């Protein structure tokens, strides 16, 4: 039988799968000799069993008994014992941190008798009754599903009766009164008495924590953060220490470095005479951690010592939750801290400079997703004509502009209509998650950098300004006021700067990030911008380590040039149909409507010089690097007017209809397909419309010859799309080879060109061995390959039913975003293996959207592709991930 319970002395930081992040790190700290209140962890495996079967696993109760007995032995008191009770906290703790998403119950073990024991031991009646009412409140809400507002309302009632609006003015008798009121609320709402048996409290709280894994907000958070749905949470049972035992007690959160900038120093918040949840919930305003030096120097010094120990042990920035009980410091949690993208790069390089980690590890410590965040625009540094209305804390960087909304519901509603919104709240709580997801940014008037809003926004990479205390937020009225008589109502546009904390009324223009300017070559690593220097160092190392090259999907010289500046080593996909849009649509129309060979040839002749010019520009921008040009792919009707509009026009005109319109309508009707994505496109077009592919190949060959004659080094690769059978490819390849030879002869310039194919149909993947006989390279078109493997229309499904599929956990992320390794990936593997077997050394790449997705880039590395190709702006992300994949 598996072991379901681990004492803190038994675990370690590497057991996160089993003990969750919190449990594993509590164990690690315990073993480091740090002051952790004794306790034990019930494993995530027990949770998984509970969620699957609805019952606790066999043997768990006995194990808990044994560990509780040991804990009682160590503490010298028994759980809930009337004279001197042991009290415990029951906390969730999954493998991946999900701040505030799951449940916690504190002060378990208190009842009508033990509250007296606690009062006597602490010498403080008020504290004991306050603790007891907190237990009933948390237990009622969490375990018995009682609406939390009812408890809050009761507290407000009592405060009103006492003529105060501060909890601190409440007396022991007030809390006694609240205990009675809370019990009545439980009785009425839950239809049962608040359980007074300490062990029953502990067991019910444990089950409630297990169940909170499937709370709506936890499900939503996991989807956002791509955390697997089936991990479950561990439960930590920890002996209570109290931060609410008077002014020599308190609770706080600390970071070993600034989670926003990465700089070393003392960062965190402290709240005197409070229990842990008060800080994270942002309910009362905290003081900066540096104040603790004045309040309790001994604890402060000890905390700094511990912070150093933790950094040196974890070799990374850590965040910490701690409590001081009557001058004694206790560690309640640590973990490798969440940080902003900028801090991640800075910290990685700082640790590298300190010799704590090597360059490989530095690259491991950052992600492509973080780099992408750093490439977001920022506000222009000079802001004219827009009023700055206040400044809050710079909780999560970025620049966000949108209409102010005051509830999560409105945020979701407006965002669904395509509007940009900023969610404005006094403070957020876990129920605001959907609004935070929908909003461009989050602004709160209360709470520090460790408040819920700040922690969650940073995790999501969402711009957040918190603790803007000058704002008076009135959620009911749907407005806030700022100094100087400014009132902002729902729908007014505001701009928030998550890097400076500034809040503006109106729309502030945004400008490129310094990281983009660095990639553009406008800023250099030597210019002294610490972030740019860090990014440069990591990128250089990633490039040196990468086994795959990164190319770009680009269809014009300008994009190609930008991609090259961003580090692309060629073009992996030039979609030539994009060159037929705009003014040239007319010419394509002529081609489609052509009656007879002469008319068709005339249309092709008109297109050819334009195509040649395009290719010359691209070859020049990518001189010396491979350029894969794909022959025209999409269905022809895309170049013709909309069938409904045209039909109406012709019908309305009746006998007077333009003859050209009539011909057009005829053509549109003839070409109309029910399933155009599965219809006449790609290689099929080339085989059906004589001369079309030939024109394109000639334009490529002549452009290459012209570039070479001008001293350039063009490297064309001609790619045939949507091939399903080698025979299709052979026919087009033979024609293409003939044209290449003819152009070589006519120009006297020899430019070697590869001819290859896309693998974007399951049949192509499954017959890749045959296809490789005729193809000099493969490029995996995973957009179509995903569409055809799953039978999902790439243009429709995301709107139609993906959200339901995500909810059901059929997949954790859209397969159009991250490559489906098991299905589509299997086809890629088969094709790569069979292609290599048939043609050793065949060049393999990917040009579907997945080429810029971090997880998919790692997959491509595993399969041994030669390159990934993605949109120019994603090139740095793909470079970084290609390097990280090789480490
Ligand atoms: C693909 O199908 O993956 C691809 C790159 O081609 P397109 O997106 O143009 O169909
Ligand atoms: Mg395709």
TrEMBL record:
Q: Which Gene3D superfamilies does the record cross-reference, listed alphabetically?
A: 1.20.80.30, ATP-grasp fold, A domain, ATP-grasp fold, B domain, Phosphoenolpyruvate-binding domains, Phosphohistidine domain, Pyruvate Phosphate Dikinase, domain 2
User: Looking at the keywords, is Nucleotide-binding present?
Assistant: yes
Per the similarity annotation, which family is this? Belongs to the PEP-utilizing enzyme family.
Query: PEP-utilising enzyme C-terminal domain spans which residues?
Result: 539-883
Sorted alphabetically, which InterPro entries does this protein's record hold?
A: ATP_grasp_subdomain_1 (IPR013815), PEP-util_enz_mobile_dom (IPR008279), PEP_util_AS (IPR018274), PEP_util_C (IPR000121), Phosphohistidine_dom_sf (IPR036637), PPDK_AMP/ATP-bd (IPR002192), Pyruvate_phosphate_dikinase (IPR010121), Pyrv/PenolPyrv_kinase-like_dom (IPR015813)
Boundaries of each PEP-utilising enzyme mobile domain copy? 419-501
All copies of the Pyruvate phosphate dikinase AMP/ATP-binding domain together span 60-285, 293-343
Query: What GO MF terms are annotated?
Result: pyruvate, phosphate dikinase activity
Keyword Disulfide bond: yes or no?
no
On the tree of life, the source organism's domain of life is Bacteria
**What does the UniProt keyword field contain?**
ATP-binding, Kinase, Magnesium, Metal-binding, Nucleotide-binding, Pyruvate, Transferase
Catalyzed reactions = pyruvate + phosphate + ATP = phosphoenolpyruvate + AMP + diphosphate + H(+)
First-level EC class:
transferase
User: What's the cofactor?
Assistant: Mg(2+)
Q: Which source organism does the UniProt entry give?
A: Actinomadura violacea
What SUPFAM superfamilies does its record include? Glutathione synthetase ATP-binding domain-like, Phosphoenolpyruvate/pyruvate domain, Phosphohistidine domain
Put simply, this protein is called: Pyruvate, phosphate dikinase
Q: Which EC number applies?
A: 2.7.9.1
């Amino acid at each position: 039988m598996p072991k379901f319970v681990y004492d803190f002395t038994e675990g370690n930081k590497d057991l996160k799968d089993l003990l969750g992040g919190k449990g594993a790190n509590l164990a690690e700290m315990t073993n480091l000799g740090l002051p952790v209140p004794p306790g034990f962890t019930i494993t995530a495996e027990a949770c998984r069993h509970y969620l699957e079967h609805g019952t606790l696993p066999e043997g768990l109760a006995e194990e808990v008994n044994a560990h509780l007995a040991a804990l009682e032995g160590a503490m010298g008191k028994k759980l809930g014992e009337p004279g001197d009770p042991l009290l415990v906290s029951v906390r969730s703790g999954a493998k991946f941190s999900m701040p505030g998403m799951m449940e916690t119950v504190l002060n378990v073990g208190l009842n009508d008798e033990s509250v007296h024991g606690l009062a006597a031991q602490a010498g403080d009646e008020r504290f004991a009754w306050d603790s007891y009412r907190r237990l009933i409140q948390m237990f009622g809400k969490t375990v018995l599903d009682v609406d939390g507002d009812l408890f809050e309302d009761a507290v407000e009632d009592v405060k009103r009766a006492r003529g105060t609006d501060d909890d601190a003015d409440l007396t022991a008798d007030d809390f006694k009164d609240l205990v009675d009121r809370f019990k009545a609320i439980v009785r009425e709402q839950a239809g049962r008495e608040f359980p007074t048996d300490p062990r029953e409290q502990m067991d019910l709280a444990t089950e409630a924590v297990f169940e909170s894994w499937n709370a709506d907000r936890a499900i939503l958070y996991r989807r956002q953060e791509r955390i697997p749905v089936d991990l479950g949470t561990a439960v930590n049972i920890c002996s209570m220490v109290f931060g609410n035992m008077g002014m020599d007690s308190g609770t706080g959160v600390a970071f070993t470095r600034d989670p926003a900038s990465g700089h070393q120093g003392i960062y965190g918040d402290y709240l005197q005479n409070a229990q842990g949840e008060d800080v994270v919930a942002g309910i009362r305003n905290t003081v900066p951690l540096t104040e603790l030096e004045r309040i309790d120097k001994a604890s402060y010094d000890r905390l700094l010592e511990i912070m150093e120990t933790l950094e040196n042990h974890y070799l990374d920035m850590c965040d910490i939750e701690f409590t001081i009980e009557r001058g004694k410091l206790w560690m309640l949690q640590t973990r490798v801290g969440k940080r902003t993208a900028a801090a991640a790069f800075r910290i990685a390089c700082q640790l590298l400079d300190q010799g704590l980690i090597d360059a490989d590890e530095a690259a491991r410590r950052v992600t492509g997703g973080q780099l992408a965040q750093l490439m977001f625009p920022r506000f222009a540094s000079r802001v004219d004509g827009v009023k700055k209305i206040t400044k809050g804390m710079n909780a999560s960087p970025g620049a966000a502009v949108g209409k102010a909304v005051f509830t999560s519901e409105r945020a979701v509603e407006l965002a669904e209509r395509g509007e940009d919104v900023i969610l404005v709240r006094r403070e957020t709580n876990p129920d605001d998650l959907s609004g935070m997801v929908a909003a461009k940014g989050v602004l709160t008037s209360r709470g520090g950098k460790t408040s819920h809003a700040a922690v969650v926004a940073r995790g999501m990479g969402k711009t957040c300004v918190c603790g803007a205390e000058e704002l008076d937020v009135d959620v009911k009225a749907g407005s806030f006021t700022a100094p100087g008589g400014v009132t902002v109502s729902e729908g007014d546009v505001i701009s928030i700067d998550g890097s400076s904390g500034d809040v503006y009324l109106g729309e502030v223009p945004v400008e490129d990030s310094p990281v983009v300017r660095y990639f553009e070559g406008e800023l250099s690593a030597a210019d002294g911008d610490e972030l740019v220097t860090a990014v440069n160092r990591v990128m250089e190392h990633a490039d040196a380590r990468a086994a795959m090259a990164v190319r770009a999907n680009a269809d014009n010289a300008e994009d190609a040039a930008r991609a090259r500046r961003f580090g692309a080593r060629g073009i992996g996909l030039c979609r030539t149909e994009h060159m037929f849009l705009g003014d040239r649509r007319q010419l394509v129309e002529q081609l489609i409507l052509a009656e007879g060979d002469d008319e068709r040839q005339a249309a092709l002749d008109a297109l050819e010089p334009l195509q040649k010019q395009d290719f010359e520009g691209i070859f020049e921008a990518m001189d010396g690097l491979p350029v894969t040009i794909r022959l025209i792919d999409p269905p022809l009707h895309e170049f013709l007017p909309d069938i409904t509009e045209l039909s109406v026009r012709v019908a309305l005109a009746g006998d007077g209809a333009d003859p050209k319109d009539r011909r057009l309508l005829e053509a549109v009707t003839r070409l109309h397909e029910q399933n155009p994505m599965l219809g006449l496109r790609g290689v099929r077009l080339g085989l059906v419309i004589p001369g079309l592919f030939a024109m394109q190949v000639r334009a490529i060959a002549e452009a290459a010859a012209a570039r070479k004659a001008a001293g350039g080094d063009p490297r064309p690769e001609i790619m045939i799309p949507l091939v399903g059978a080698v025979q299709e490819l052979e026919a087009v390849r033979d024609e293409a080879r003939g044209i290449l030879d003819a152009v070589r002869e006519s120009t006297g310039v020899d430019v070697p060109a590869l001819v290859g194919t896309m693998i974007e149909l399951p049949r192509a993947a499954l017959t890749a061995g045959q296809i490789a006989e005729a193809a000099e390279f493969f490029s995996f078109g995973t957009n179509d390959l995903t569409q055809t493997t799953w039978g999902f229309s790439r243009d429709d499904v995301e709107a139609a039913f993906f959200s339901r599929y995500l909810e059901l956990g059929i997949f954790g992320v859209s397969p159009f975003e991250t490559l489906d390794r098991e299905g589509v990936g299997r086809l890629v593997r088969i094709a790569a293996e069979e292609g290599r077997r048939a043609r050793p050394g065949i060049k393999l790449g990917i040009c579907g959207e997945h080429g810029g997705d971090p997880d998919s880039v790692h997959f491509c590395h595993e399969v041994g592709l030669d390159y990934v190709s993605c949109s120019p702006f994603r090139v740095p992300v793909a470079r970084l991930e290609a390097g990280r994949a090789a480490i």
